[in-house]
Amino acid sequence: MERVAAHRELPRDQYHCSTCGGAHRYGSQRGQRCGQTSSRPKYQRRTVPRAQAHRPDWTTPPTSQYTSPRPRTTFPPTHTPTPPREAKPTPDRKAERRQRAKESLTRDPSNIAGDVVTYVFDENGFYTRLANRAIDKVPWFHPVRYRSHGLCVCLNNVAKGLDPATYAKWAQLPLRAGLIRVGCPTFLAEVLSAASAFGVKQILGTLPHAQLYKTMRVMIPLVCPDLGICPARTDVVKTYASPALGQELKAFAADLRRAGATG
Fold first, then answer.
1. 246-250 contacts: CB < 8 A, separation 24 or more?
2. Predicted pLDDT of residue 121
3. Are 96 and 185 in the same domain?
């Protein structure tokens, strides 16, 4: 009570010093010296980095109430994994697949002439060489790859796009540009527009409409990995079952050879 009373009795321009127990004037040198010689510890900077101040001690393994690891919950995948890409077939693999396609066509109950199949599947024939170039030109990154009947569906779609109305609309265009307009991929349009394919006939309208779309259909068994389950099999069988297909294909190939010789 006496100390409190002493505090109250100090003048307004003085304050009680906790160091020496006396009173000092505000702003006096004596009061500053007492403050500098104070026995209270000064503030010390943190020597431990802040990032390590709250880091747990990993030297001691944490205790757990489980005696064994908790089972990990697995969820079904959100997407179907992409199957591995298949390399382009070797010559032996091509021959094996074409032999199966040839047998599949000859076993078909439709009226498919054997001479047509023999002519189309000739190793040195026009259609076999054209099919080989189409397989070799398929880009590796292109969605129309050799596997999964992509090239078969592509050829069949181009054949469907060559209807008379569309064909007449783009007949005056160059062959490559006209094929691209009817839905043909660029790599296949380049194969078909090459001089080794249709000779010097570089205008779409100079090629017969019927022979051009039949060429697409008869090439499908030559590039197909398995004709028995091919999506374009029905259209292929209808084309091969045409009675005059053999004469038309031979005449078309002979006309192309003559055009190439005269050009």
1. 246/113, 246/115, 246/116, 246/119, 248/210, 248/211, 248/214, 249/116, 249/119, 249/120, 249/127, 249/211, 249/214, 249/218, 250/119
2. 92
3. yes
Prediction pTM value: 0.62
Q: Do residue 166 and residue 247 come from a single domain? A: yes
Do 117 and 188 lie in one domain? The reply is yes
Token pair for 262: 């005269």
Comparing CA positions, the residue from 239, 240, 175, 184 lying closest to residue 208 is 175
What is the reported pLDDT for 53? 52
| CA 55 from centre of chain | 44
Residue 130 has pLDDT above 70, yes or no: yes
Closest of 224, 192, 68 to residue 126, by C-alpha: 192
- Nearest partner of 154 among 120, 183, 192, 121, judged by Cα: 183
Nearest CA to 199 among 136, 130, 260, 111?
A: 260
138 and 245 belong to one structural domain: yes
Kindly provide the b/e burial profile for residues 3-13, where b requires at least 16 CB atoms within 10 angstroms of the residue's own CB. Answer: eeeeeeeeeee
d(CA 200, CA 229): 37
Dihedral sign, CA of 224, 227, 233, 236? positive
My answer on whether 115 and 223 are in the same domain is yes
CA angle 67, 73, 75 (to 5 degrees): 170
* Per-residue pLDDT band at 19 (split at 50, 70, 90): confident
Contacts (Cβ under 8 Å, ≥6 apart) of 31: 15, 17, 24, 25
Highest averaged pLDDT of the listed ranges 20-29, 70-79, 127-136, 205-214? 127-136
Task: Tell me the residue range of the domain where 24 lies.
Answer: 2-35
Instruction: Tell whether 60 is covered by a domain.
Output: no
